[in-house]
Design goal:
With 235 residues, the protein is of the alpha/beta class. The protein has 8 helices and 10 strands. Strand 9 (204-209) and strand 10 form a beta hairpin. It binds adenosine-5'-triphosphate and magnesium ion (MG).
Length: 235
């Protein structure tokens, strides 16, 4: 469904990504893991067209998208929920969700029906529909941001650190919601620093280090690797 081939992305002279090749198949949750500054967000921005690669190709549903405008990439069903819960603070939860659907021309009755579907994934948003964005907790804002992404009816949903800064119990809920989104038929590319919990819901994963992929394997094998690294460090 998504295929990156030997991508290089720069900020001026700084090489942020080098020789990145990766794939996401339909139906999967794929984790993209790495420490601060590894290049995770840059990878998502390169895929969604916010930054252009200096070299390499990005294919989505069999078409090259590395020079397609970002809004057209959205229309093709590739949705990027950026880092940092960027919802509109002066709009209500309902209005934030409606905005997610505006890339498609659909009737308000359909929008309302789709809001109901988002609420099946995030029931905690139900009593908050008329609350303004700024008045929500971090976890509630994050649910709203992911919910808004769902309103675009993604074929592939890319989430940038959805668990960042959330209390442990809320993190649990967020990962369960992502699993549910996937079970309902949406493919997910999940960027996380939280390796253990994201691999627990993922099929496969890639590990980025200083702009390069240093590991790529099934989620259970990567989890084993992490376990062994900790055991090694404890000796
Ligand atoms: N706008 C920018 N201009 C210059 N350098 C940048 C810019 N954005 C990111 N970088 C650099 O590119 C590298 C990768 O950054 P990126 O934001 O992709 O990392 P990340 O893995 O998402 O990190 P984090 O976990 O902190 O979000 C870092 O060295 C960062 O300093
Ligand atoms: Mg980032």
């Amino acid at each position: 469904m998504l295929k990156l081939n030997e991508i290089e992305t720069r900020y001026g002279k700084i090489v942020a990504l080098r020789n990145i090749s990766m794939e996401v198949h339909e139906g999967e949750i794929v984790a993209l893991l790495g420490m601060n500054g590894a290049g995770k967000s840059t990878t998502l921005k390169t895929i969604s067209g916010l930054i252009r690669p200096k070299a390499g190709t990005v294919e989505f549903m069999g078409r090259s998208i590395e020079s397609v405008p970002p809004e057209e990439i959205v229309r093709q069903g590739l949705i990027h929920v950026p880092e940092g819960r960027k919802i509109f603070p002066g709009l209500t939860v309902r209005e934030n969700l409606v905005i997610g659907a505006t890339s498609r021309k659909i009737a308000m009755s359909t929008v309302n029906q789709e809001i109901e579907e988002v609420l099946e994934v995030f029931p905690d948003l139900t009593p908050l529909l008329d609350r303004l964005g700024w008045s929500l907790s971090g976890g509630q804002q994050q649910m709203c941001a992911v919910g808004r992404g769902l309103m675009a009816r993604p074929k592939l949903l890319m989430l940038d650190e959805p668990s960042l800064g959330l209390a442990p119990v809320i993190v649990q809920n967020m990962f369960q919601a992502i699993r549910k989104i996937n079970q309902k038929g949406t493919t997910v590319l999940l960027v996380e620093q939280n390796a253990r919990q994201s691999l627990a819901i993922s099929h496969r994963g890639y590990v980025l280090e200083a702009g390069s992929i240093v590991a790529s394997d099934s989620a259970p094998s990567l989890l084993d690797g992490i376990q062994n690294a900790y055991l090694g460090a404890a000796k």
